[in-house]
Amino acid sequence: xxxxxxxxxxxxxxxxxxxxxxxxxxxxxxxxxxxxxxxxxxxxxxxxxxxxxxxxxxxxxxxxxxxxxxxxxxxxxxxxxxxxxxxxxxxxxxxxxxxxxxxxxxxxxxxxxxxxxxxxxxxxxxxxxxxxxxxxxxxxxxxxxxxxxxxxxxxxxxxxxxxxxxxxxxxxxxxxxxxxxxxxxxxxxxxxxxxxxxxxxxxxxxxxxxxxxxxxxxxxxxxxxxxxxxxxxxxxxxxxxxxxxxxxxxxxxxxxxxxxxxxxxxxxxxxxxxxxxxxxxxxxxxxxxxxxxxxxxxxxxxxxxxxxxxxxxxxxxxxxxxxxxxxxxxxxxxxxxxxxxxxxxxxxxxxxxxxxxxxxxxxxxxxxxxxxxxxxxxxxxxxxxxxxxxxxxxxxxxxxxxxxxxxxxxxxxxxxxxxxxxxxxxxxxxxxxxxxxxxxxxxxxxxxxxxxxxxxxxxx
Length: 460
Description:
Distance between the termini: 122 Å
Strand order of the largest sheet: 4-3-5
Low-confidence stretches: 454-460
Order of helices and strands: HEEHHHHHHHHHHHHHHHHHHEEEHH
Number of helices: 21
Helix content: over 70%
Largest sheet: 3 strands, antiparallel
Number of strands: 5
Shape: elongated
């Protein structure tokens, strides 16, 4: 406002005041208490109210301007601080991902010192602690993050993951349940919870959780896999029901599983087990016999052998083998179990006939050689028995020793610079190396060289 404008306003108010005084020559008395009053001319009163209004309005404008300015300054300051903290945080995460843990810790701790309410920074610090195997500190940081944001999915997942790695499965289960309560269709949490239940053979809970996984709608590329897993869990729950004496429920469930997956060997085996537990041995035998004819798995023949031998009724099993041997003559698995049974019953010649049929087919199996060796031993032909024992043990003229991986214990006939099973380098050593090296021979005061051995020692 210029000086001339200000003077014009003053002149205007003076003129207005003189005009009002001329029009209103009287006085107005205002009482502010019962016996106290103030007397003004009307012009003074009007002018006073106008001036008070102007002062109040200007004061309000001035207050608004100052408040707005302070807010704008604070916002700019906070924004600048947040950008600086974010830059420090991002650099710290970058260092963490590149493996520079020392620098990452310095940067992330600096970010936390600048702002202790950043949940993402706590999560990053927890990840760093996990890489340093400092899980206790990681969980403590995640607890602080959870106090800031109790519903953070990322915080809960990270907490459950660390607890899972530490074997704190009960605590991990509670966290996964908390996640599921926040989001009932959280497939990742459901699958993690299910896997813990499976790891501890808690089949009923695993089954119920798997049903929730399917209800949540797995991805199109996992539908078949998840449905198969549901079937396997139903089987495990039914097998547990057999152990708990819930035989009718188990039988019904196993039959339904087999209707959906007709080539599921465990289901067929356990259905027979259920019949045995119910006292329906004939039905069990029928199930196992049909299972072998359909699927060709040796477990069915093993179940049949165990069943009849426990009941001291080997003749029924022999009748089955003999009646089927012509039909199953080309089935070497059938011949293997037939020969084993004959050997078990001291029917050595018949066992030899079946086992030699397998060996003559070019099968190189330590189990076949072992059974043949026992057959020859019982027939009183030790040289043939020794030969078969050597084949069973893999002993050749080289007397070759096997090697094992010190990381995963995979056994190999040859030394490997890198384990073919787990990929570890420089882990191949003679089987039982540590046992042999750590043992100490008995002390011998004097080595005795027997007669006739001196020349051999001298020549050596």
